[in-house]
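Teaching assistant's notes for section 4

Start the section by putting this record on the projector. Ask students to predict, before seeing the second block, whether MnmG N-terminal domain-containing protein will look compact or extended. Collect guesses on the board.
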Amino acid sequence: KIKSQCVLLTTGTFLKACINIGPEKRPAGRIGDVSSIGLANTLAGLGLKMGRLKTGTPPRLHANSIDFSVCDRQLGDDPPVPFSFMNEKVWIKAEDQKLCYITHTTAAIESIVKDNIHVNRHVREEVRGPRYCPSIESKVLRFGGRKHQVWLEPEGMNSDIIYPNGLSCTLPEELQVKLIRTIPGLEKADVVRPGLFLF
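Reveal the predicted structure now:
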């Protein structure tokens, strides 16, 4: 037994969570990890009310399949600025930082989203997502007729995986590939992991 006046459980997105890709739904905390179903059931059995939060991610792309020459280079800070006030400098030199790039969506994305919105579970069920980082489907529905920036960010210093920030997407995987390939620089992009939402 653990005795305490207060217990704080930080389960993140894992508490009885499901991964959703298009109409498919399966229990998971994220791809490759299990959902905390037993803990959720125990808490519910104690009479505790649980809410659901939604988070989404974009499909991940292989860097070698992207034409960065048609994208805008984004240099890192010079000198690099630490994320914490506890540090005065970071370990990496400005010239050793990995580059990010910017591209943008096209009108073709709007057609793909609108023609296939019926297979998008989170939009169909009106699940409310994060306010300040909406999915590409939400952007198309709320802000139709606009181009949206897509930041191409390396997932790490030694990674060939690119995170296309601004393209959180929950359409079926084959439609995600079609959508990605309408974007300048991504016409031949290899999707190594589909976008999804956790709910």
